[in-house]
């Protein structure tokens, strides 16, 4: 039976670059929770990272994310954080989605590493009030979330994919192929735009 409300998944990230771990996490959540769509939301300025390393241009990360979800039913790349500009706060995004899709239920999909840091976000109470938190294992690591009052939490298990964007950037820098961890179109953007060639 169809769910009364549209069920929208949000998978936020830097996507620098997008990889098959992101895709597998989105698909696992989509299938196990019966989500109508999963939006891969590309951070404009991931403020917890941007002080410590060079982040690729937002437009380039969006283009690569569009390539990741191309021809994948129910998965879309979302540019709302880029259009909003400035530092990216997931609380703003969840509020915006809530206003834009009032008749929907929002599922915020996070890997275990990200879930463990949610208390460090800007206004986590808003995020948790307006969405159901979906925690996906990251590789073999799972997380025991601290008790968060009023949070709605779902756990999704995926076949572990042991890869991160950091590792892919390191591989590109070292001249090692990343073909098995992402798709050809993304590899091509990385080559064409000379991404990850200098240490940062
Ligand atoms: P970086 O190494 O630069 O931090 P990343 O691979 O962690 O990159 P992000 O863009 O930071 O990618 O991740 C976005 C979201 O996807 C986060 O919630 C993260 O936990 C999740 N995620 C990333 N890779 C995986 C993976 N291999 N398995 C499960 N979840 C993942
Ligand atoms: Mg990360």
CATH superfamily: HUPs
Bound molecules: adenosine-5'-triphosphate, magnesium ion
Question: From the coordinates shown, what is the CATH architecture?
Answer: 3-Layer(aba) Sandwich
Overall outline: globular
Share of β-strand residues: 15-25%
Q: In order across it, which strands form the biggest sheet?
A: 3-2-1-4-5-6
Within the CATH hierarchy, at the fold level, what is the topology? Rossmann fold
Per CATH, the class reads Alpha Beta
Give the helix/strand class.
Answer: alpha/beta
E-strand count:
6
Number of helices: 8
Helix content: 25-40%
- Sheet with the most strands? 6 strands, parallel
Helix and strand sequence: EHEHEHHEHHEEHH
Distance between the termini: 50 Å
Domain unit count: 1
Characterization of the model:
- With 200 residues, this protein is α/β, with parallel strands linked by helices.
- The protein has one domain (6-162): HUPs (Rossmann fold).
- It has eight helices and six strands.
- The protein has a six-stranded parallel beta sheet, with helices on both faces.
- The longest helix has 14 residues, at 20-33.
- The model has no long low-confidence stretch (mean pLDDT 95).
């Amino acid at each position: 039976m169809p769910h009364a409300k549209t069920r929208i998944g949000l998978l936020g990230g830097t996507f620098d670059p997008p990889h098959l771990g992101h895709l597998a996490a989105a698909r696992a959540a989509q299938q196990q929770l019966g989500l109508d769509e999963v939006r891969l939301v590309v951070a404009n300025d991931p403020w917890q990272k941007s002080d410590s390393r060079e982040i690729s241009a937002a437009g380039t990360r969006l283009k690569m994310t569009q390539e990741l979800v191309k021809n994948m039913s129910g998965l879309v790349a979302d540019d709302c954080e880029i259009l909003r500009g400035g530092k990216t706060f997931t609380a703003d995004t969840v509020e915006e989605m809530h206003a834009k899709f009032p008749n929907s239920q929002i599922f915020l999909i996070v890997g275990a590493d990200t879930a463990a840091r949610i208390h460090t976000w800007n206004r986590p109470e808003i995020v948790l009030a307006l969405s159901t938190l979906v925690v996906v294992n990251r590789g073999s690591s799972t997380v025991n979330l601290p008790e968060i009052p009023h949070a709605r939490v779902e756990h999704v298990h995926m076949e572990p994919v042991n890869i991160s964007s950091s590792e892919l950037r390191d591989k590109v820098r070292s001249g090692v192929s990343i073909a098995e961890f992402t798709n050809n179109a993304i590899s091509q953007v990385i080559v064409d735009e000379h991404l990850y060639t200098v240490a940062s």
